[in-house]
UniProtKB/TrEMBL annotation:
This is NADH-quinone oxidoreductase subunit B. It comes from uncultured Desulfobacterium sp. It catalyses: a quinone + NADH + 5 H(+)(in) = a quinol + NAD(+) + 4 H(+)(out). GO terms for biological process: aerobic respiration; electron transport coupled proton transport. [4Fe-4S] cluster binds at residues 48-49, 113, 145. Its EC number is 7.1.1.-. Its cofactor is [4Fe-4S] cluster. Binds 1 [4Fe-4S] cluster. It is found in: Cell inner membrane; Cell membrane. In the N-terminal section; belongs to the complex I 20 kDa subunit family. Belongs to the complex I 20 kDa subunit family. NDH-1 shuttles electrons from NADH, via FMN and iron-sulfur (Fe-S) centers, to quinones in the respiratory chain. The immediate electron acceptor for the enzyme in this species is believed to be ubiquinone. Couples the redox reaction to proton translocation (for every two electrons transferred, four hydrogen ions are translocated across the cytoplasmic membrane), and thus conserves the redox energy in a proton gradient. Pfam families: Oxidored_q6. HAMAP family: NDH1_NuoB (MF_01356). Keywords: 4Fe-4S, Cell membrane, Iron, Iron-sulfur, Membrane, Metal-binding, NAD, Quinone, Translocase, Transport, Ubiquinone.
Length: 183
């Protein structure tokens, strides 16, 4: 019997003359597995996209099957979903909610208004922010006006995939936030 060596561990004991391999995954992989299966978004629905986000949580689409449970408190959330047009008066509120979320945290911009200002962004306008990424770092963009609940679910699944691969880590988030602070 041939035993393949694991990159995570070495054979540590022998059972009946054959080495027994104990498999240990890196702790970060285990944490990512837990994070993937329990995303708790804070709802920040500002306009019509919020209706589609609420529909995704209802029985027909059932986000609970993916481990996603909407939370009303930023201190209990790890995903912020910005859905709708952002006025300049809302900027301090969005930053405050983002800062109150524990890390690691992720942001999804849902709908054309949250991504680029939508139809309200034009030359000479003074009240609309041209995208969530002008305020806080965004990880997933969900286009549409408004995007369907299926698109929202696809965005959550994409976020889960990125987290499970370890490509969305706290260090990248901190670097991105520091880069924004310097500007």
């Amino acid at each position: 019997m041939e035993i393949k060596k694991s990159p995570y561990c070495e054979p540590t004991m022998a059972i009946d003359g054959a080495p027994a391999v104990l498999g240990f995954a890196p702790v970060q992989n285990l944490l990512n597995l837990a994070r993937v299966n329990s995303l708790w978004p804070i709802t920040f629905g500002i306009a019509c996209c919020a209706i589609e986000m609420m529909a995704a949580g209802m029985a027909r689409f059932d986000l609970d099957r993916f481990g996603t449970i909407f939370r009303a408190s930023p201190r209990q959330s790890d995903v912020m979903v910005v859905a709708g047009t952002i006025s300049k008066k809302l900027v301090p509120t969005i930053r405050t909610l983002y800062d109150q979320m524990p890390g690691p945290k992720w942001v999804m911009a849902m709908g054309n208004c949250a991504i680029s200002g939508g139809p309200f962004a034009y030359d000479g306008q003074y009240a609309i922010v041209n995208g969530t990424d002008k305020i806080i770092p965004v990880d997933i963009y969900i286009p549409g006006c408004p995007p369907r609940p299926e698109a929202f679910i696809q965005g959550l699944l994409k976020l889960q995939t990125l987290i499970s691969k370890g490509t969305m880590d706290a260090n990248r988030r901190a670097e991105k936030a520091a880069g924004r602070a310097k500007k």
